[in-house]
Write a structure and sequence with these properties.
This protein is an all-alpha fold and 500 residues long. The protein has helices spanning 19-35, 39-51, 60-83, 85-104, 109-137, 141-172, 177-180, 182-196, 210-233, 238-258, 269-272, 274-304, 309-315, 317-334, 341-357, 367-394, 402-439, 446-479. Helix 4 (85-104) runs antiparallel to helix 5 and helix 15 (341-357) packs antiparallel against helix 18.
């Protein structure tokens, strides 16, 4: 990474001289959080065998993390604003490392489920503080583009990187190392946080909006959990419908209360802003589509093509590389010159094109000619999208609201991932069942027809994922109207106190 001179023209006069090392620390923490959304997936079969998990309970290794993470993000973001971003960042690192070590040492399913829930809870504290630290550290437009390009590359490629690392660790070491690996990363980030990170003190006189916490987190938890259960129970299941309806009702009450609360958990001006609202929605739709890619291509590589866990992980390397290039070398360099939507909308179209290319898969497709081009386009498009979304959402937010703003963006990602996984998996399973019913006859070879049915289900789901990404492109084009930052110009001014 090329470190710009602190005295370069246009650099902020009050710029932290350690800010680029601070970015390294923040990036390590962000990498740890996004890795854990997928790193355990490939290790799950091995963990299930060793710990004696039932098929019905194994999903809790994933669900416990996502529910705790998605449900507690708003609370974590506001805690960062109240007690200080650096302090919250450090607490999140220590807790996440401890929970990871606990999960790696699990002697039974319950211990692993509990550790994953603790990981999610501390990730909900860590992720918003990391993004808000980045937003308040880099204010010069030129440096901001580079910093957010690196952060966006990690966020966009983290899920694919999780598959790569998870596959290698599971095959060559042990599934437990998919959890243990977080501890040394957290220790490095923790040392760096004490040495190079700077932050304004928190607001000791401010109080937490307790009704807002109960309504907001109480609404998000059943929604994330409801969508995760819809994958296995079906959309018409009484529990699923009850969770989703209850969650929506609580969120409606949450919005009503936030308009009246003296110190709201989520100041409504954050989501009323047209550019931020457009970015939140774009991010949610993009994640819905991209989770489909990771989910179905993982199964396709292992179940249909017979790849090992390590080879499956390595098959995702081009997605990671393309995301990093799109985010750092293209979006990071262009954002200060062009409006964000001129990167985001084409990025979503490119990703949709990549998904369409993957609808042509067969039971014996070639990785190089049939799969690789689609993966590269999908990753490149996501790189063009992630970075301007992060930069636009955090631009001009008052420092005392930066944590909860970052948490809102993270929440849109988590909700999008939960909805996308449940929705696209339902579509794939329904299409697979329909194909089997139509083609599995007495004269057919069952194993071959089953593989063809799986591929058919994946390709139908990929069509839907492509559609979601095209909707994201349309949302971006219509809602995000922010202009390009200029050299040396400050970011959008924070809203005055009276407007909050």
């Amino acid at each position: 990474m090329t470190v710009p001179r602190t005295g370069a023209p246009g650099a902020s006069a009050a710029a932290d001289p350690h800010r680029w090392w601070g970015l390294v620390v923040i990036a390590l923490a962000q990498l740890m959080v996004v890795l854990d959304s997928t790193i355990v997936n490939i290790a799950l079969p091995s963990a299930q065998d060793e710990l004696g998990m039932s098929d019905s309970n194994r999903q809790w290794v994933i669900t416990a993390y996502t529910v705790a993470f998605g449900g507690l993000l708003l609370l974590g973001g506001r805690i960062a604003d109240l007690v200080g971003r650096k302090r919250t960042f450090v607490i999140g690192l220590i807790g996440f490392a401890g929970a990871s070590a606990l999960g790696g040492a699990a002697v039974g399913p319950g211990m692993l489920f509990g550790a994953r829930a603790l990981q999610g809870a501390f990730a909900a504290v860590l992720a918003p503080s990391a993004l808000s630290l980045l937003a308040t550290t880099f204010t010069d437009p030129r440096e901001r583009g580079k910093a957010f390009g690196i952060f966006g590359a990690l966020a966009g490629s983290g899920s694919a990187t999780g598959f790569i690392v998870g596959g290698l660790l599971t095959e060559y070491l042990n599934w437990r190392w998919c959890l243990y690996v977080n501890t040394p990363i957290a220790i490095l980030a923790l040392i760096g946080a004490f040495v190079v990170l700077r932050d304004r003190p928190g607001r000791p006189g401010a109080r937490l909006d307790v009704p807002g916490v109960l309504l907001g987190c109480g609404g998000l938890v059943p929604i994330v959990y409801g969508f995760s259960e819809a994958e296995s129970r079906g959309w018409t299941d009484t529990l699923v419908l009850g969770l989703l309806a209850g969650g929506v009702a609580l969120l409606v009450a949450f919005v009503w209360w936030q308009a009246r609360a003296p110190l709201p958990l989520l100041p409504l001006h954050i989501i009323k802003d047209r550019d931020r609202a457009g970015c939140f929605l774009t991010m949610m739709l993009a994640i819905m589509g991209m989770f489909g890619l990771f989910l179905f291509m993982t199964y396709y590589f292992q179940v249909v093509l017979g790849y090992s866990p390590a080879r499956t992980g390595l098959a995702f390397v081009p997605v990671t590389a393309a995301t990093v290039i799109g985010s750092t070398q293209i979006a990071g360099r262009l954002l200060q010159h062009v409006p964000p939507r001129t990167l985001m909308a084409p990025g979503m179209v490119l990703s949709a094109t990549g998904m369409v290319m993957l609808t042509r898969l067969t039971v014996d497709s070639s990785y190089t000619t049939d799969i690789l081009p689609g993966l590269i386009l999908a990753g490149f498009g996501m790189g063009l999208t992630y970075m301007p979304v992060f930069a636009t959402v955090t631009a001009g937010v008052a420092p005392q609201d930066s944590g909860v703003t970052s948490a809102t963006l993270n929440t849109s990602q988590q909700v999008g991932g939960s909805i996308g996984t449940a929705l696209l998996n339902t579509i794939a399973n329904t299409s697979t069942a329909g194909f089997l019913a139509a083609h599995l006859t007495d004269s057919a070879w069952p194993a071959e027809v089953t593989r063809e049915a799986f591929v058919h289900g994946y390709t139908v789901a990929n069509w839907c994922a492509a559609g979601l990404m095209l909707v994201a492109a349309l949302v971006t084009a219509l809602l995000v109207t922010a202009r390009a930052p200029k050299h040396g110009a400050p970011t959008k001014a924070p809203l005055p106190e009276a407007a909050r």
